[in-house]
Design goal:
The chain is an alpha/beta fold. Helices cover 41% and strands 11% of the residues. The protein contains 16 helices and 11 strands. It has helices spanning 2-6, 12-21, 23-30, 38-43, 48-57, 101-106, 119-134, 147-156, 179-188, 203-216, 230-240, 258-265, 275-282, 304-312, 321-328, 332-344, and strands at 61-63, 93-96, 108-112, 138-141, 162-166, 190-193, 219-222, 244-247, 270-271, 349-350, 356-357. The protein has a 9-stranded mixed sheet, sandwiched between helices. It is elongated, with a radius of gyration of 30 Å.
Length: 367
Amino acid sequence: MCLAAVVEPGHPAVAEAVAEYGAAQVWASLTRPGSELPLGLRARTVKPGELRERTRAERLRFVIPGDAEWPAPLSDLAGCEPVNQLSGEPLGLWLAGGGDLAELAAQSVAVVGSRASTPYGDTVAAELAAELSESGRSIFSGGAYGIDAAAHRGCLAGRTPTVAVMAGGLDQPYPTGHRPLFDRIAERGVVVSELAPGEHPTRVRFLARNRLIAALTPGTVLVEAAARSGARNTVTWANVLGRIVMAVPGPVTSATSVTPHLLIRESEAILVARASDVLELLSPLGRANPRPPSERRPTDELSADELRVFEAVPGRGSLGAGDLALKAGVALPTCLALLDQLADQGFLVQNVLGQWQLPPRGGQCVR
């Protein structure tokens, strides 16, 4: 906990030292009297007892690799290719909320995008998150304004918890306007940070936070992002980690469509338009993929001659067999036989005058 409180997130050298020597030995070397290293000077300002008590006072818990709640996918960050000179598995995580982070990460999807989102993007993100939640997937995002917030709210409307990964201490929610949202997330889900209580977000910490979102989930969906967007950094991390990257297309006239369209064009992301597309990509090989409801109509099963006769019947009113034969371009005997077949299948009925018409509303016929 003390190391995590003094080491900036994504510091690969410290993470490697902890993996080789253990946290206790690394901490001892930093706090050794006479050390003038900047990290050592900062380490000597930390009071372990006070840090532990502040964590408890804020109703937080601290987990480390090997704990039951530690998500195994985070180990993929160890030794992976750096992005913006950041890398390495977290030393530990501060958590708030009633959910189990490891369990939620096992069946999850990250949904990220622009803070300056459009109504189109907010609607897509919310509906996508809600449908994925109804399918049993937890939604991970960064808690920011725009697409992140829409994704969290969409998941809250579903049946699974959502997880917000923060770039500052959990005692100082950022953005502050989302405090009610974070409280709702924590009821059944989890709010996560790599930073100790009291730490504030910075640009580098946001970039380091993005690697956690990408690592915790098997797939990342980008909804909207302009040419220069922090969400693009999350996608880069997902690609480096070998995760599935997906992007939702948008209007070609919108500036927030630039990055999703570029990723799709450059084959860095797979186009998705609905939750079923996402679920299909995340389904294990050999498992039946979800399919949208059938769009076939009853008339699709009719033969060409049956369809010609059926289409000759007016939407309102009725016609005799002779007129239908002329309109459909078939011989009268053939038309009579086809009319009987269509009646047997429920597509047509014969009225008291002996003419043919569509069945009353509520019958089988659907044009």
